[in-house]
Each structure stands twice: as C-alpha cells, then as structure tokens.
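Subject: Protein record for review, amino acid sequence with backbone structure tokens
Why sent: The fold of this protein is of interest and is recorded here as tokens.
Notation: Tokens come from a learned vocabulary of local backbone shapes, not from coordinates.
Attached in line: The record itself begins immediately under this heading.
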Amino acid sequence: MCWRRKNLLYGVEKIHLGWCYLDNQLLISYIEINRIINKKKMNKERREMEKIANVKDLKRGASMNFPYKGKEGILVKTKQDKLVAYSRVCPHEGGTIEWDADINRLLCECHLSIFNVDDGTAYRYSSLIKKMDNLTPIELKIDKNQDIYAV
C-alpha cells in the first residue's frame, strides 16, 4: 500500500503530489483524491445534520417542532419568509417555548415571557425575573433540494 493511500484513509486532507499508485494496480490523480476526500467530508457533515423538513412544507407564519440533540427545537417561517430555529427550552426555568403567529413572537407560557422571533432576544418578561437570557439558536442549512437541516 502506498504511503499516500494510507494517509488518505486516516484523513489527510491534502496530497501535494499529482499521482499515486494505489495497491500497485490503480492510478488516481490529485483531483480524484480530493474528490474522494470532499465526498467523505460531505457525508460526515450530512450525518451530523438532522433533516427537519422541506421549505415548501412550511407555510409563511407557521412553525413546527422537531427533535434536536435529545431535546426539542422549533422551526419558524416568519411572515417575512425568513427561516429561524431555536431550542424549545426556555432559558429561565426550562419551560416549553411555543410560537404565537398572532403576535409574531415566541412565548413561554410558564412565566408569560415573550421572545423576538428574528433573533431570540427577550422582548418582555415578568418583573419577578431579574434577567432573562435569549433563546438558544439552532443553525440551519438548506440544500439544493430545499431540505432544511439542523446543524
């Protein structure tokens, strides 16, 4: 087995020489090796991402809940057609965050806390709470098929 093949299998990302004999039978060019590495990276990223839905499945002003890393997340398509996602766990005491399309805000019914949908910042909360943290955002990626993934 050639040295470069061994390192390719162990995750070396760049090979500076143009050609390599693999197992004394196959000749692979630098471009083909990079293609293999990039394909492995894309497959790894895809395994780490969790598919939520397709863009066309979510109407403007609607939301949907989805599992995310052992907890729940909420995906919202705002009235301005922007997609945002947050953890459904309230930062105060762990209450459940819900979407209220009438007021275009996210809310926790435990303490009637209200959060901005665009950035997850606390909009209003009870005067009994000294400080309210922001909602935890979830990064989204949309692929060429318009599938939405939580990263």
User: Anything to note?
Assistant: Confidence is low (pLDDT under 50) at residues 1-7, 9-19.
